[in-house]
Amino acid sequence: MNIPPEYEITPEIKKLNSLIEELRAFLNSVNAKPEIINKLNQLNKLKSAFYSAKIDGNTLTWEQIKEEFIKRSQNEHIILPPRQEEILAIIKDHMNVSFDFIQRRFYKVPARTLRYDLKKLAEKGLVIKVGITRGSFYRAK
């Protein structure tokens, strides 16, 4: 089913689009340092997220989107061991996860090792431990 768009591509939009393509071609031809290219890519992603949010009617400000973008991009660069990645995925899939729930999923892994993994995830700011005794649980940040 083909749904017609609810917007019109004006000559100004066409002109801006061609300018973007020209600049993209130029940047691809330049031998810039990887750090500079990475910063430009991040800025472009941020601008794209901001304008997409505005198109969708979202009322977030530039600063709010920038803050969230920085927070998420910092989490992308964290490299975790496979078991910690799996624990993090389990916590993200469920709202609140108890230690017993995690322990049942990793029945061959000692409890001490799982506690260490959870402690490391909390230190990296990826999960939050709520509570301090047996009733405590973990949430994704």
Number of helices: 6
Share of residues in strands: 5-15%
* Spatial ordering of strands, largest sheet: 1-3-2
**What is the number of beta strands?**
3
The low-pLDDT segments are none
In short:
By secondary structure, this protein is mainly alpha-helical.
Key terms:
Arc Repressor Mutant, subunit A; DNA-binding transcription factor activity; elongated; 3-stranded antiparallel sheet; mainly alpha; 2 domains; 141 residues; transcription regulation; DeoR_HTH; WH_DNA-bd_sf; HTH deoR-type domain-containing protein; 7% strand
Textual characterization of the structure:
With 141 residues, the protein is mainly α. It has two domains: 11-76, no CATH class; 82-140, Orthogonal Bundle (Arc Repressor Mutant, subunit A). The protein is 62% helix and 7% strand. The chain contains six helices and three strands; from the N terminus they run H-H-H-H-E-H-H-E-E. It has helices at 11-29, 34-55, 62-76, 82-93, 99-105, 111-123, and strands at 97-98, 127-130, 137-140. It has a three-stranded antiparallel sheet with strand order 1-3-2. A hairpin with a 6-residue loop joins strand 2 (127-130) and strand 3 (137-140). Helix 4 (82-93) packs across helix 6. It is elongated.
